[in-house]
Specification:
CATH class of one domain: Mainly Alpha
CATH architecture of one domain: Orthogonal Bundle
Largest sheet: 5 strands, mixed
Number of strands: 14
Distance between the termini: 30 Å
Structural class: alpha+beta
Radius of gyration: 22 Å
Shape: globular
Amino acid sequence: MLRIKNSQSVDINKIKILKYPEFFDIVLQLLSDKQRHCTSYFAYKKHTDLHFIMAIADDKEHDIILLSHLLKADEKQELASLTKQILALHIFEREIHENFGIEFKNHPWQKPVRFAHNRANTKMQINDYPFYSIKSEELHEVGVGPIHAGIIEPGHFRFICNGENVLHLEIQLGWQHRGVEQLFINKKNNLQRSLLSENIAGDTVIGHSLAFVRNIEALSDVSVPEQLEIERSLALELERIAIHTGDIGALCVDAAYHLGANVFGILRTGIINFTQAWCGNRFGKSLIRPAGSYLPFTEELKTELLSVLTKFEKQFEEMADLTYRLPSIQNRFDYVGTVTQKQAELLGTVGLSARMSGIERDVRVSHPNIAFQKFPIESICVKKGDVFARFLLKKKEIRKSIAWIRNVLANYNFDIQNSKSPQYNLQLKPNSFAISLNEAWRGEVCHCAITDSSGNLLHYKIKDPSMHNWKALELSLRNVEISDFPINNKSYNLSYCGNDL
């Protein structure tokens, strides 16, 4: 087994190609340890054959295990499903099945994921999606979407209900598949690719663009200054604070607590306005670039950020103390939409959707970059796994991020002389594989890149944390009233566009 570190590249020929039965057994053995999980599993065309690569994050050893197998074009296009033993792999095998037509024997839920334009079976249209159904005169189905009344992106939710009680929810995505991964290969300029990475998911600009630039830097053996990594991580934590604050306000809306909704919305604006003062864009676009930055973090920005955080923290704590103690909020969120630790482990949840159920899964701790090595951060977990747990965890993570930023600002001297301009014409190493993990505000973002013999991008694979977590949202609706769907959905705030790549 080949082990590499986060944001590292390796000669792809060093990833040993195993026979599938051996690959199967090793994966089962590795994933029997709860401190390991599959962060990516995909296939790509290698001449006429299919080359499969699995990346397993080892949180205890702080590295990533790489495994691979090959399916030749003249072999039967079927494989024994790992999902029967490791449920968390269901989504990866489903995507491979959709893209290449591989039959995974004994897979319990072999359905399309994204309806890509170049999928194996183009005869199957999105309106033909095979929803799970129960035949009964006592039950009825309720459909929500794909056209939503709000501004969220398109997805279809199919409920099976007994009266008001939800027995089953199935979520169908893929309504706006954009072919983003293929665009990374089509674009030949790293500035264009940087712009593309910022638009993978509009609310995770820093999270995704960071993963992209670290892959490019790894593939070109570029050494990144410590200060640049710290600046990037500051932006990452500001993104976390802003989105979590907005989510808390959105949950207040669903509990009809409009004072909280308005105040938290205003507080979020203060954070994103600082990001705009830093780079010209409230969401951080143009801030993250390969090997350097045109927008270094200056002493003036440091003074301004401390002022912004002081004002934010005072008002946030006052409003949070009031909101989180309200009986009406507690009654609305307590014991609603619960996912147990066992269920979360089986589903392979990541990020906040894992930590809400007591699973300590945080890339900043398990696979830290330079910034989090120099200034370590502690992960926060709660155990209830309900809406209130997700609501509470957002508040706790905001506090933790502010404390981390204050620690950095108090103990690091930012020198503009140490800044370097971005490098877009980097020469990528041929026949190489790179992987970058990043703890965005939703959780673990993973980007994988493969180059050909000329050093051009041959394959680019993106995994948004939502891909792991949509099933947790489905599960959390079981045996609750359908009226609880909006608060459950908001408490996760998963990404439609991040899934429909």
